[in-house]
Design goal:
- The chain is α/β, with parallel strands linked by helices.
- It has two domains: 2-84, Methyltransferase, Methionine Synthase (B12-binding Domains), Chain A, domain 1 (Orthogonal Bundle); 92-217, Cobalamin-binding domain (Rossmann fold, 3-Layer(aba) Sandwich), CATH 3.40.50.
- It is 57% helix and 11% strand.
- It has nine helices and five strands, in the order H-H-H-H-E-H-E-H-E-H-E-H-E-H.
- It has helices at 2-14, 18-30, 35-55, 61-78, 105-116, 130-139, 156-168, 185-191, 200-217, and strands spanning 92-97, 120-123, 144-149, 175-180, 195-196.
- Strands 2-1-3-4-5 form a five-stranded parallel beta sheet, with helices on both faces.
- Helix 1 (2-14) packs parallel to helix 3 (35-55).
- The protein is globular, with a radius of gyration of 17 Å.
C-alpha cells in the first residue's frame, strides 16, 4: 500500500495536480511512511519526469516553475519529520548553477534531496560566477561544491571554477561534482571534477561517497 502511495505521489506531480499532491503527502505522513522515500521516490522523481517533458515540449516551463513551488510546500510539510530518519552528516555543500545560466530546476531538486538527507546546503542560486563558488566554499569550510548547467554554452564555466579552486585552495580538500543536461562523464573527467551526477538521485550517492571519503581522511 505504501509503495502504491509513493507511486501515486509521483504520478500526481507528473499530472501537476497540486491539491492531490499535498493530500497524498499528508496521508503518507499519517501512515508513518519514511519521509526520505516520499521526497526522493515520490516528489523528486515526479519533478524529474516533468523536467524531461519540458525538454520535449510536452510541458511548458512556467508550469514547471509553479510545480516546483508546490513541491517546496510539500517539503515544508515533511520538514518536522526528516531529522528522525537517516544519519545526519556534518558536511556542507555549496550548490549553484554556473554563470550564464538561469535554469535551476535540477539544482532545486538536488537541494531538496541533499537537505532531506542531512546535508547543510548553501544554495548560491543561478548565474553564479566562479569566484563565488570558491569564496563561499572556503568561507563555509565546505567539503563539496555541486554545480549544474542546462545550456551547452556555459559548461566551460565549470572548468573555470575548478581552475580557480586549484589556484586558491591547492590542498585539494574541496571536491567538485558536476551535472546537468549537456554535461557528460567524459566532460567531467576532462575538467578534473571529482564526481559526475547524471540525475538528482545519483548526485546524492556521489556526494555521500565524497563526504565519507573526507570523513575517513580526517
Amino acid at each position: 500500500m505504501k509503495n502504491e502511495l509513493i507511486d501515486n505521489i509521483c504520478r500526481a506531480v507528473e499530472a501537476m495536480d497540486r491539491d492531490h499532491i499535498l493530500a497524498l503527502v499528508k496521508r503518507a505522513v499519517k501512515l508513518n511512511d519514511n519521509p526520505h522515500t516520499i521526497v526522493h521516490q515520490g516528489l523528486c522523481n515526479g519533478l524529474e519526469i516533468l523536467g524531461q517533458k519540458c525538454e520535449t515540449g510536452e510541458v511548458f516551463f512556467p508550469h514547471l516553475v509553479e510545480m516546483t513551488r508546490t513541491i517546496e510546500t510539500a517539503m515544508n510539510l515533511l520538514k518536522p519529520f526528516l531529522p528522525h530518519f537517516g544519519r545526519l552528516t556534518s558536511g556542507t555543500v555549496i550548490l549553484g548553477v554556473v554563470e550564464g545560466d538561469i535554469h535551476d530546476l535540477g539544482k532545486n531538486i538536488i537541494k531538496m534531496i541533499l537537505t532531506s538527507s542531512g546535508f547543510r546546503v548553501m544554495d548560491l542560486g543561478k548565474n553564479v560566477p566562479p569566484s563565488q563558488f570558491v569564496e563561499h566554499a572556503i568561507r563555509e569550510k565546505a567539503n563539496i561544491i555541486c554545480m549544474s548547467a542546462y545550456l551547452d554554452t556555459v559548461i566551460d564555466g565549470m572548468g573555470h571554477v575548478i581552475e580557480r579552486l586549484r589556484s586558491t585552495a591547492p590542498e585539494n580538500r574541496i571536491k567538485v561534482v558536476v551535472g546537468g543536461r549537456p554535461v557528460s562523464e567524459a566532460f567531467a573527467n576532462e575538467i578534473g571534477a571529482h564526481g559526475y551526477a547524471p540525475n538528482a538521485a545519483m548526485a546524492l550517492e556521489v556526494v555521500r561517497s565524497l563526504e565519507a571519503n573526507h570523513q575517513g581522511a580526517v
